[in-house]
Amino acid sequence: MNTGGYNFAYLDEQTKRMLRRTILKAVAIPGYQVPFGDREMPMPHGWGTGGIQVTAAIIGPDDVLKVIDQGADDTTNAVSIRKFFAKTAGVATTTRTEDATIVQTRHRIPEKPLHEGQILVYQVPIPEPLRWLEPRETETRKMHALSEYGIMHVRLYEDIATHGRIATSYDYPVQVNDRYMMRPSPIPKFDNPKMDMNPALQLFGAGREKRIYAVPPYTKVKSLDFDDYPFEVQSWDQSCALCGAGDSFLDEIITSDRGDRMFVCSDSDYCQDRQAARSKEAAE
Amino acid sequence: MSAVDQPLLRVESLTRYFGARAACRDVSFDLWPGEVMGVVGESGSGKTTLLNCLSARLRPDAGRVLYQTRHEGVVDIYDLREAERRLLMRTDWGLVHQNPRDGLRMGVSAGANIGERLMAVGARHYGEIRDAASAWLGRVEIDLSRIDDRPRAFSGGMQQRLQIARNLVTAPRIVFMDEPTGGLDVSVQARLLDLLRELVRELHLSVVIVTHDLAVVRLLAHRLLVMRQGEVVEAGLTDQVLDDPQHPYTQLLVSSVLQA
Amino acid sequence: MNELALEVGGLAKRFRLHTQGGVEIEVFRDLDLAVRAGECVALHGPSGCGKSTLLRALYANYAVDAGSIRVRHAKGWADMARAEPRAILDVRRRTMGYVSQFLRVIPRVPALEIVAEPLRQRGIAAEEAHSRAGAMLARLNVPERLWGLAPATFSGGEQQRVNIARGFIAEMPILLLDEPTAALDAANRAVVADLILERKRAGTAIVGIFHDAEIRAQVCDRLFEIAPFKVAA
Fold first, then answer.
1. In this complex, how many residue pairs, one in chain A and one in chain B, have their CB atoms less than 8 Å apart?
2. What are the extents of the domains in chain A?
3. Nearest CB to C108: which of B190, B248, B252?
4. pTM given for the model
5. Residue among B194, B224, B195 at smallest CA distance from B211
6. Beta strands B62-68; B74-76: pairing state
7. Is A90 an active-site residue?
8. From edge to edge, which strands make up the β-sheet containing C66-73?
């Protein structure tokens, strides 16, 4: 296989072994943030180096990789990462969710249900859910160890007090397997229910913060809420302007200087599949 | 003997060194339900070290702090697992800091400050948490319209009252206070003391209050420990210690205060 | 004869003034005193002989060096010279009242509240405590407009009457009175005399300092001399 002179998947074998040990530990303790030795990557932090290192550690020559950014396969970041692995690991890539064995993602979970054997790798900017209230790392670690999560609800309380509802809509905190509090990375809370009892393995990599955590297949993931303010996902009055979907996460796109706008699926693969099916129907 | 006839807190020969120096040496006393104990002494006398040891925040080098739990008998708080100890601190015990910044979350609203301890012990009903926060704001004489304001926008006296409400919301049995009136104007102090007196009586609270202000302990404390260089030099009924001090240091302390 | 309410035996008190070169002032020694229920004893002797000191010692406001102060309390006896602070406070709450010469004003607390406090401490509901406090203040001619105010700004006489109201309201079995009528006019002195006689009839044992000879003659059964020669003896 031609990997352009790089070691397979860029990282050296020692580093990948270290990462795999970290990932195994993370899988063994769902939701727990395991520290790892972050390596210099050929792109800056903030470009998904955490997710890339995780993917590099788990990818094999037979894997099929899909990379999305905000749900789309065709954005710069997604294209670059896909090319990176095509070059350094020589693996096949795809934009089709169901064909991929590994999906690396920034800010979305695909609309199409994942299946057993697939791995979803999240790029995580800030892994610590308690950080907003507690700046001391020693204290947050202790709070995790002792399951002291009451302050997470303080944040939801503030939301309701200020907005009359839980206004947090991204990176909405979850409790994994009734134990660890976890940040799902900045996915919309629309995607939170997909994490719960998902057949796929979910891995989270934070490069700058040097943490990896995981949600194994079929693991309970509960979004925090109050009894009288239950967890709710976003909904839209509109359907997708391109495919007509009424059940997907929509992006608002400004189409002219006059402020014209349209709503379209954020998941480009999902949208294209539906458009193809529609034109096929129309043709028949 | 029933639990009613037992001290809530029994302190035995508590000693804590910093290096070679004993910040607090061989301190023993019992604290009974509903009792307010004042600890007075000048800066560096060891009273804050003692308070930290009592409130489970500083492990003593020797001695024990025995606490009569609600259901599980007497425990040495430093024998408890950390999770249990921290749970006690959030439920049965309160801690009022001299500087409200140390005891409040300045970045969240007054209501959330009060509600936090409830949420920490499992309250998951927003309406009920908010009702409890409102009720406590009322009890500490803070206008209800301030419930969504952050404590930054409060005066020093209000911040201190908010800190007290935040502690009392889980109906603790013991409250530790470190110079709660320090840094407040005299008129504001009076209001706070009056409020504390009222709450202590109504809630049958046990309190350990550390202060260098003898007027504060005269108003609040049933009993007094006078500390000097890490040791208790005199202990007894508050008015007896203040009006008929026996130890040379206590006599000096009392005679140094301007009579108002 | 009524039963003993207060029995003092072998009491000794001296002050050691460490801040003034360790000067020792002996106030009394080997002092014995017994007071029966319904009896009023006036402490007597020249100024500075230790009348107030004895009264304060009985209340455990001053420590004593030797002897006992036995008080009939809660179906038994308590020794104010030796009891634990919380036992002393219990005696003060339920058995022994003390009317000092001056009211120790608590900032911000209104007169009515100050008077009601001894009842509240015993667990009597606020409403009843307040209504009884009001009745007592009215009896002592403290105008109702003052009840809701903190007594810091009251006249000496008004403060003294708040103090007396507070001392008498709880109807303690033992009362210690330090010149209760010093700052009062004739009409209010008469009210206080009535209050004392009323308490005596109810069986309260009273120990007091009365400079006013007329009141003393009216309420006291006997004098108890605290003479300097006690020290010499």
1. 60
2. 13-223, 235-284
3. B190
4. 0.89
5. B224
6. antiparallel
7. no
8. C23-36, C4-17, C66-73, C76-79
Binning pLDDT at 50, 70 and 90, where does residue A53 land?
very high
Write the pLDDT tens digit of every residue in A202-255.
999 999 999 999 999 999 999 999 999 999 999 999 999 999 999 999 999 998
Query: What is the rounded (10 degree) CA torsion for A15, A17, A23, A24?
Result: -160
A48 is a catalytic site residue: no
List of chain C residues whose C-beta atoms are within 8 Å of the C-beta of residue B239: 61
3-state SS, residue B228:
strand
Q: Which residues contact B13 (CB under 8 A, 6 or more apart)?
A: B26, B27, B28, B62, B63, B64
Say yes or no for a CB contact (<8 Å) between A154 and B105.
yes
Would you call B119 and A228 a contact, using CB atoms and an 8 Å cutoff?
no
Name the nearest CA neighbour of B104 among B152, B52, B49.
Answer: B152
- Give whole-number Cα distances, B233 to A1, B6, B249, C35, in Å: 84, 25, 8, 36
Backbone dihedral region of A164: left (phi > 0), alpha (psi from -120 to 50 degrees) or beta? left
Cβ pair A203, A122 in contact under 8 A: yes
Phi, psi torsion values for C171, nearest 5 degrees: 50, 55
> What ipTM was reported for this prediction?
0.92
DSSP secondary structure string for all residues of C58-127 = HTTSS--SEEEEEEEETTEEEETTT--HHHHHHHHHHTEEEE-SS--PPTT--HHHHHHHHHHHTT--HH
Distance from CA of B177 to the nearest CA of C (A): 20
In whole angstroms, what is the distance from residue A70 CA to residue A186 CA? 10
Interface test with C, best of B4, B237, B241 (most C CBs within 10 A): B237
Q: What angle do CA C9, C14, C16 make, to 5 degrees?
A: 155
Chain C residues close to B248, C-beta within 8 Å: 18-19
B112 in contact with A at a CB cutoff of 8 Å?
Answer: yes
Q: Which amino acid is at C225?
A: E
Q: Classify burial at B15, counting beta carbons within 10 Å of its beta carbon; exposed 0-12, middle 13-18, buried 19 or more.
A: middle
CA distance C197 to C38: 9
Encoded tokens for B21: 């120096």
The Cα B233–Cα B250 span in angstroms is 8
Strands (E), B59-124: 62-68, 74-76, 93-96
CB A27 within 8 A of CB A201: yes
- Is the CB of B116 less than 8 angstroms away from the CB of A162? no
Confidence tier at B260 by pLDDT (50, 70, 90): very low
Identify the closest residue of chain B to C59 by CA–CA distance. Answer: B240
Query: How much is the average pLDDT of C91-116?
Result: 89
List, as ranges, residues 213-232 from A with C-beta within 8 Å of B. 225-229
φ, ψ (nearest 5 deg) of residue A96: -90, 120
As a whole number, mean pLDDT of residues B159-169 equals 95
Query: Region C137-163: what's the mean pLDDT?
Result: 93
* pLDDT(B1) > 80: no
**Active site annotation includes A31:** yes
Assigned CATH class of A13-223: alpha beta
Quick check: A154 and B112 CB within 8 A? yes
